[in-house]
Amino acid sequence: MTERQTGWLLVVVLVGQLILVASQVTAGDSSKSQLAAFGLRLTAPIARAAHGGIGSVSSMRNHFHGRRGLLRENERLRQEVEGLRLELTHFYGLDEEAERLAQAIGFSRQERGDLRMAEVLYLDRSSWLRNMLIYAGRTDIEINQPVLAADGLVGRIVLVKGSYAHVQLLIDAAASVSAMVERTRRQALVQGTNSGGLELIYLPLQADIQVGDLVATAGIDGVFPRGIPIGTVTSVEPGDELFHRIQLEPAVDLNRLDRVYTLDRPALPPPLEELPRLANP
Amino acid sequence: MRILRFLAALVAVICLQLFGSWLYPSFPRAFDLFLVLTVLCALRGNSAIGLLAGMAAGLSADALSAGPYGLFGFTNTLIGYTTARVSQRLVIQRASQYFLVTAAAIVVQQLLLTALASLLFDHGRLPDLAWLPIKAITGGFIAFLTIVLRATLYRGRERRRRGRLERLRL
Prior knowledge:
The complex is a heterodimer.
Chain A: H1 3-27, H2 34-65, H3 67-91, H4 94-105, E1 114-124, E2 131-135, E3 146-149, E4 152-161, E5 164-169, E6 176-181, E7 187-192, E8 198-201, E9 214-217, E10 229-238, E11 244-250, E12 259-264, H5 270-279
Antiparallel strand pairs in A: 1-2, 1-12, 2-5, 3-4, 3-12, 4-5, 6-7, 6-9, 7-8, 8-11, 9-10, 10-11
Chain B: H1 2-23, H2 27-30, H3 33-42, H4 47-63, H5 71-89, H6 95-120, H7 132-169
Helix pairs in contact in B: 1-3, 3-4, 3-5, 3-6, 3-7, 4-5, 5-6, 6-7
């Protein structure tokens, strides 16, 4: 190939990629291109194989760690299970009672939905384009499905190809979720920051908020159901003339994440899902 | 054969990127192995190979990142082509020169990404330029190590070949 031909090839390739990038930016995150899905299909199996290798190395290391460590871990887990069982006894009967009361006042409770486990193949929580790659096995996964960990909300699925998916992390600067302060039920918006933290925005200055308050999903954005822990308030400062400036510590420790759960349920309650169809028959 | 070698190197880079981020959370901020691979391929002096290697490595990096697909593809294609053109005009043979060229390529790539991101994104998502010197040094160092290792392997192979020839003459 001559230098002239290479020059033309460069122009074509660069313009093509620029159009590809621009089309995704204008169409929003939820409509990634077929080429992106193809790229995911090519790289994700390599990532899975590498993850398998990492898992083997990790299990070998654990094996050599010795029996003493395992016994200590076992003892700690046993104590934790006992503690959780004790805690559970407080909740016996509460669920049925809540159901009865809800029926009595005609309140329809949110459906919980199914949680399905997925493996974390790759997690980049530090760079400017934070990302998580997961493998869901035979489970069906969809765009916009919430992704959770045992401690709370992780993010949502933004690209799916087969059993592999890209997850937009909650700490991403482009991510946001409707939230409420658990103590006061006051609603606001949680947004990721460029530094990898979380911010509670649009909470008016007159609203009551304290360091240590728990923040959970409000369930009004049509993506995340209500009540999933997001984080804890770590600092409250007076922001501009209208709103507080509030920093949150994420509920989920991304440093220790090796498996997550996809929530298989409609984010909107059934009566609300019917609305658009009723409006546009 | 060359394509197969490049693909094997690309797979190795993906695996190293995954292993690195598992081992050390800030790995993606401090290392860009995809760009190092692009520069090493481009420094062979063929601009078409530099362009295609940059595109393949960049699109692979895109598949592991959350940005719009093609962002790293665009920058790495440009870097691959430019590096190949530069190496046609300059004699780059020493490992220290590889270090400098790779570090410079990383700086240019990050500046390009910053320019593109500030044009395209409205969320304030920008590359972390505080990590730029570290990224440039680590990238340059990996290129340096690769060249030193390659030269050592080449010398060893050459010595063995000469030894065999000597024995045949005797």
